[in-house]
Amino acid sequence: MRTRPSSAARAPNGALRAVDTDSIEPFDDVSEPGAPNHADRAHGLNGMNGASVADGTARATQPGTERVTQHDGQHDAPHEPLSPDDPLAPLPFNPYKGNRGVTRAWHAMKNSLAGFRVAIREESAFRQELTLAAILIPCGVLVPVDPVSRVLLLGSVLLVLIVELLNSSVEAAIDRISLERHELSRRAKDLGSAAVMVALGMCLMTWLLIVGPLVVQWLKAWL
Asked: Of the listed 129, 164, 171, 183, which one is catalytic?
């Protein structure tokens, strides 16, 4: 507690008398800027095991780690290296992430082409959707619509291919972990299939709303 000088107070008879303010406790709701609050200090002392406050620094000893917390807003600084399971631990070195610039773009293009080859060779659903895209993309380019509608037609077809590739990658990752039947594995694959179905429904809706009226007009003019 900060020592304050004595001040004068007026007695009931009108005479002045000296009052020692050292014995007066400060109000709990009054604190100076930058000084720790009494309630906060009490909460910190009750919440930390073996905590001690000295020169504005609180040291808390926990099982396995020792951290230093400062009142100036700095984060906790660990004194021991983080375990591999800690989410804040740095990722292990990956030799495949060392490429930069044009070399990285070249390797990324080769990996993308390899992914297309694997999808065409191993995924029958992707082959069917790729055949459908080979038919719809030229039609979307030749149909007489405005540029925005043309982008929607082509984008809906490409979206189906994108979602199917992602679904295939999820299935490959699950099979890499385990081939046994598991509820979570089945759920992940079903969710991927549901995403493909939504993409197909969006593609169908886009083509019906944009190309459907044109087809109806062509049929009426021909008949």
From this structure: 164
For residue 154, give the CATH number of its domain. 1.10.287.3610
User: Is the overall model pTM greater than 0.70, yes or no?
Assistant: no
66 counts as catalytic: no
Give the range of the structural domain holding residue 162, as residue numbers without chain letter. 124-213
181 pLDDT higher than 80: yes
- Count up the domains in the chain and report the number: 1
In a domain, residue 67? The reply is: no
First-last CA distance in the chain = 99
- Copy the structure tokens of residue 200: 């197909």
Q: What phi and psi, each to the nearest 5 degrees, are found at residue 54? A: -155, 125
Q: What are phi and psi of 18, to 5 degrees?
A: -80, 135
Contacts of 29 (CB under 8 A, 6+ apart): none
- Report the candidate in 192, 204, 216 with the shortest Cα–Cα distance to residue 152: 204
pLDDT value, residue 150: 95
Q: Considering the domain boundaries, does residue 110 fall inside one?
A: no
Distance CA 100, CA 106 (A): 10
pLDDT at 82 (0 to 100): 63
Tokens (6 digits) for 53? 């406050």
- Residue 55 falls inside a structural domain: no
Position 113 in a domain: no
DSSP assignment of 165-215, as one string? HHHHHHHHHHHHH--S--HHHHHHHHHHHHHHHHHHHHHHHHHHHHHHHHH
